[in-house]
Amino acid sequence: MGVIARLKEDIESIYHRDPAATSTLEIIFNYPGMHAIWIHRISHKLWLANWRFTARCLSTFSRWLTGVEIHPGATIGRRFFIDHGMGVVIGETAEIGDDCTLYHSVTLGGTTWQPGKRHPTLGNNVVIGAGAKVLGPITMHDGARVGSNSVVVKDVASDHTVVGIPGRVVASPTNQSKEKTERRTEMAKKYGFDAYAVSPDNPDPVANAIGQMLDHMHLMDSKVQELCNAIQQMGGEVCTKKLPELNVDAFDEASREAATNRKHDIDKFDPSI
User: How far is Cα 225 from Cα 235, in angstroms, rounded to an integer?
Assistant: First the structure.
């Protein structure tokens, strides 16, 4: 893949993962995490070509410019995204797969002064929250997640979520949780909710509460439908009308109207009062 194609791929991946991104020009000039990755690709080639002093100097310049420290020896895959960037440290022997995401103040560090492999390996689609520390020659397998400010010193299996100090598994992909997640997602779409973070094992209490509400709504819908069917079989005329569909655009219109009213109130405010 050519340089231009790779840059376009990086920009597109930011659009997919950061709703704050509004234009390509904004991404090019205002995303230090992406700047750090682009500079690292150059310094990594210099490192492999045995121009190691030059590679380290370029890496130091990148740290000064972006606040992100990536050792030129680190191996990084495609569509890697560092959001916010400041304070991220990636060690020499770290290996990062494709489509990974790191937030600010994340450290992929070592736990020994001995040479050789001493930094973490990240599979594909790994997400590490702000302030988390992943230490030692451990492996974060595909789809692993690390909560903010966690400290991880052991391997994390595929699609598992780890939080705390030391990191402990709080979510794993069981068949029961998958079925419940699919059911909640279906119900969320039906009622116009955003299905993000409605996993039954999500440690966020608000997300759990929303998930339980969706479960309750699903159960009530099923019971009412069964009751209607039973009455109709007995000759009763009930449930003949379809439930009205929710118009999501109406919510968007109300949100825009509220935003306009807030702006109007701010414009009317006189600070000299």
Answer: 16
